[in-house]
Amino acid sequence: MTENIPGGRVAPEARIEAPTRGLDTLADARYSTTGDDRKGHVALVGAGPGEPGLLTIRGLRALEAADVIVADRLGARSVLDGLAAEGVELRAEVVDVGKLPGHHAVPQDAINELLVTLARDGKRVVRLKGGDPYVFGRGGEELAYCREGGVDVEVVPGITSAVSVPAIAGIPLTHRGLATTFTVVTGHDQIQSLGGTRDHTVVLLMGVGTLANSAITLARGERGADCPVAIVEDGYGPRQRVTIGTLGTIAHQAAVRGVRSPAVVVVGDVVRLSPYAPAELAASALTAPPALD
Hints:
The chain is an alpha/beta fold. It has helices spanning about 10-15, 55-65, 75-85, 110-120, 140-150, 160-170, 185-190, 210-220, 250-255, 280; strands spanning about 1-5, 40-45, 70, 95, 125-130, 150-155, 180-185, 200-205, 230-235, 240-245, 265. It folds into 2 domains: about 1-160, Cobalt-precorrin-4 Transmethylase, domain 1 (3-Layer(aba) Sandwich); about 160-285, 2-Layer Sandwich (Methyltransferase, Cobalt-precorrin-4 Transmethylase, Domain 2). The chain has 10 helices and 11 strands. It has a 6-stranded mixed beta sheet with strand order 1-10-9-11-8-7, sandwiched between helices. The protein has a 5-stranded parallel beta sheet with strand order 4-3-5-2-6, with helices on both faces. Strand 3 (about 70), helix 3 (about 75-85) and strand 4 (about 95) form a beta-alpha-beta unit. Helix 4 crosses helix 5 (about 140-150). The two termini are about 35 Å apart. About 40% of the residues are buried.
């Protein structure tokens, strides 16, 4: 089953407007826009899944105060474009270091060095990363490199796509009686060693290219070929779409529908809870394993 997801965007009036009570503590020296003797620093900011309304208030403050924004492709660029469309003016220079699958135009080592060089020049740098900096975002590597170079670093968490993208399709990663644990993985190599049963949700990031092999591998275990699977493409983006099937059918469905990255794949019985699940899968949720006390 394939459906376009309606209403995926947060209402414009909800995106930027936010209560300001209690936020005075954020106006520290790092976000001050006055004075020429300020010390450069780096803020690793999670952009979330690409929806400006899901950017944290602290993340927005950091962007507004930045001299330079070093931006990823996924999530980060969408947030910047969305903020601009809503009239939010950012004075910072934007440096695009986005990566495509299998092609890294700017190597990670060069990104690390760029952050340190800019901060040493007294710049307030935001490293804007899709999702959360610490969830497959190499944020830990960048933080370590900056600290080794004597640069102060702040981490501003973001909403990882592993949670937020399934949510837009109505899929919780845990649900009483269906799943109490979940694992987030990338790539087929990690799938090879992944155990567990269908009540253990698997979230596969960057896995479209290896979907067929991953489905076969997962179906060989206790999950079985009839285990539900959902693919959510371009979550919160203009072509967001959800395709639901089973481990035995999903590779064929994806090929027929021309599924492409970016996409998040969810494997497990929680997929039955999606309003986009076909009747034969959704109905069988009534006969799910007994609720866990």
